[in-house]
Design goal:
By secondary structure, the protein is of the alpha/beta class. The protein has one domain (5-305): Rossmann fold (3-Layer(aba) Sandwich), CATH 3.40.50.150. Helices cover 42% and strands 20% of the residues. The chain is globular and about 55 Å long.
Length: 306
């Protein structure tokens, strides 16, 4: 006998929840393991490279003194500290990340900076119900890796005060980010991504929110309204010289994952200095589509896609 529609819905939801939990477990192992080590190695490039796009987003939804802010996927906590300076002593910032090693480092550095209005917590946003409310939820490149983004962003929405704001900076399509895409296509000429592997992966990947319609649909399903998207095209530095730039793009992103899963360490034997262009060595443009999702009855979300 066919199951009743309600039973089918319940069963589908149960299966989806189990699949999401399993996917998150693998992604957390990746971020707390090999990806953490690579991020530490290239931190000077990642924080400076992504920082400009984060600043652009903060200029659109600038936190006010006294605001309470949630920083999603806070990583090293550099953006969390930046926001803490904007909200001042009367405000507070909570930085969350699913990877304990990132949180440990973020806490240590915030303590060294003497910041009293910053807290950090290990949290999987997909399964976390926050026991407090925020005027702003912010994420710089931290929301693309959710196995179930609707569940995660719904939890964020429920943590916002009425009229609160969600601002996300995410990647646009990889074909628009040639500095990563070209490394992938070159790598694929020589190394195939294995069908079976033991290494954990980072989840859906950095381009999971590249499509404007898909991301808008995710936000609508999570309960946000009045979505608006903005592009953001800024130059970034991907290396101090050609060797570092090549090492960088072959250690992170699609090329880096192919090599890691295949058990192949990235290697580059180039020598000498790289040719210099108007932007300097290793400068590339990554482009972002940004948007504001406004729910006047509840929450507003700003999304930067790239």
């Amino acid at each position: 006998m066919p199951l009743a529609p309600a039973a089918c819905t319940a069963y589908d939801a149960l299966v989806a929840h189990v699949a999401s939990a399993n996917a998150n477990e693998e992604a957390i192992r990746a971020w707390d393991g090999p990806l953490f080590e690579v991020f530490v190695r290239f931190r000077h490039l990642l924080t400076s490279g992504l920082g400009a796009h984060g600043e652009e987003a903060l200029s659109l939804v600038r936190p006010r003194p006294g605001d309470r802010v949630l920083d999603i996927g806070c990583g090293f906590g550099d953006t969390t500290q930046r926001i803490a300076g904007l909200v001042g002593a009367s405000g507070a910032v909570l930085g969350v990340d699913a990877a304990p090693r990132f949180i440990e480092m973020a806490r240590h550095q915030a303590e060294q900076a003497g910041l009293a209005n910053v807290r950090f917590a290990v949290a999987d946003v997909e399964t976390t119900s926050f026991g407090e409310r925020f005027q702003l939820a912010f994420s710089r490149m931290g929301t693309m890796f959710f196995a179930n983004p609707v569940a995660a962003l719904r939890n964020v929405r429920e943590a916002l005060v009425p009229g609160g704001t969600l601002a996300m900076v995410v990647w646009r399509a990889k074909v628009e980010n040639d500095w990563l895409y070209r490394a992938q296509t070159i790598t694929e000429r020589f190394v195939a991504k294995p069908e079976e592997y033991d290494e954990p992966t980072c989840g859906p990947g950095p381009f999971a929110m590249a499509n404007a319609d898909t991301t808008s649909g995710i936000l609508v399903s999570a309960g946000y309204q009045a979505i608006s998207l903005r592009r953001c095209d800024l130059p970034i530095t991907i290396g101090s010289d050609l060797d570092e730039a090549v090492d960088f793009v072959m250690s992170l992103g699609p090329a880096g994952e192919i090599l890691r899963l295949a058990g192949r360490a990235p290697a580059y034997s180039g020598g000498g200095s790289a040719p210099r262009g108007p932007g300097g060595v290793g400068r590339a443009r990554r482009r972002h589509r940004a948007g504001i999702d406004v729910d006047r009855d509840g929450q507003r979300a700003e999304r930067r896609a790239g």
